[in-house]
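Entry 12.
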Amino acid sequence: MPALEARNKLFAAVVAAACLSASGLFVTVSAKSAADLSERIDRDALDVRSTAAGIRTWIRN
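Predicted 3D structure (C-alpha cells):
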C-alpha cells in the first residue's frame, strides 16, 4: 500500500522531531520539511546517517 508507506515515513519524521524536542532541543520543522525528507528517503535511498543529517537541520540553537 504505497499511500500507507508514505504516511508511515512522514509519521517517523514527525516522531523524530518530537523526540528531539522532548530531549530539550528547540526544533523547528514544518510539515512540508518533514514530508520533503520523507520523499528524499525514498527517492534518494537515504541511509541512516544522511537521514539523521537532514533531521539535524531542524534543530535551532
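Annotation: Strands lie at 26-27, 59-60. DSSP finds three helices and two strands in the chain.
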